[in-house]
Known about the structure:
Helix content is about 60%, strand content about 5%. The model has no long low-confidence stretch (mean pLDDT about 90).
Amino acid sequence: MFQVLNSEQVFNNIKKSWDDQPLVIILGLAILFRLLAAIFAKGWGMLDDHFLVIEAPQSWVFGYDYNSWLPGSKDNVGPSGHNFFYPGFHFLLFTLMKWMHIGDPQVKMLIVRILHGAFSLITVYYGYRIVETLEDKRSARLAGILLAIYYFMPWTGVRNLAESTSIPFVMLGFWQMINPENNSRRFRALFLAGIFFGLASDVRYQLVLFPSGIFILLLFRRSWKEMAGIVMGVLCSFLLVQTLIDLFIWGYPFAEFIGYIKVNITDRNSYFTLPWYNYFLTVGGIMLPPLSLFLFYGFIRGWKRYLLIVFPAALFFAFHSFFPNKQERFILPFIPFFIMVGSMGYYQYILPSGFWSRQKKLLQACWIFFWGINIVLLLGLTFMYSKRAQVESMYYLSRYPYLKTIIVEDEKGEVPLTPLFYTGKWPVYPELHAPDTTIYQKIARMAVLPKFYHPQFFLFHGGKNLDRRVATARKSFPYLVYETTIETGFIDKLMHRLNPVNKANRVYIYRNREFYKEKQAVN
């Protein structure tokens, strides 16, 4: 009996805290799961959040240019349309870590993930405050808890994705406009909002659609003073940052921005070309029905009531829906505002409706279903080590000194993209170029070069025909010996089963005894 009463007391205390101080609980959960994701969700999700944001700036710290973005680099033919602002931040961060003698790649990435997770808390806090200001506490509680622990939010919050890193700036911009304390100083508030919107656009150019939507609204309302404030703010932060960076690198302004526009126009059909309605299916799916349907209904029904948020977000969504190149990550900046407006619309238009007022048990069942699935997925993503085999194989090599050259090949005889960052050095891994048509031709050509150019390790991705592949490599380098096998992660295996396009190959590491005669590294 005592335990039952004690449990009831605990439940009542939690309920009272949820009613009285929901933001404390929301932020506590947001911090907890982002910290767990920072610690356990290693690796990367998409190629861009590692190879464009991590590999490139780390190579600059080492004195190389991994992607040939910089003038004077081999194969560079001019501005290639890459935004240097966000990778540049990582360059400064990695330079600081080098000065502080923080060299372990996993420790460096842990710091990066913690910083990103902390920054993403801005989205949770101000998302709650905006909804509470526009509507009420119950709407804010729903929006806040979804922003905190929707199953993918902690995971994307610690990733090096420009799409998710730009969101807090947009949230700060909207808060400057909505905060009732700024009613008496509208120009200043709109100017600061423009500063934040401009910074979001500095991280990812497409975020300029948010202030563009606000500009159109203010233009129709003939709010000239507010319109001037937002335009001046955006121009100050966006133009100033882009101008200074490109002047420093290229000697003239907007070099990369113009290059980005050209690349996206010419290559708009070169990647993932999908129908215009694809993002409706994407959002409806990843947001988990039936809740995603509730949010869609609330978002659409509340368009006039919450026009200041709905129109810019809808403009962003419409642009990406009609632009041919589509990837799931492109739509991420839309999601928090979809959640916020959908949460307000849920309490304004769905809960009071005659149908749901008569179907309370069905509504309760919908919420139980959602939270059950969401918690399972939340735990899965929060502890997911993505691309484990690729990362750990490189990290394994970090213990070896004087690492200069490695060979990386897969079951098809191709050279997979390799995260050199985790070696803590910058070894070369030869890619295929003419006159070589296979990696084994490349290996044979390297064998006749002086020992200095010989590879120190061979990394074979996947076990298919492994004996034959190793035997072929030994024809050129007979001193190859087996070192270890790096297993792939559970989630990578699961994703491969769901879609074979997602590779989940274990990595077999062979050591060249010309360089390292003992298995254990020197350092």
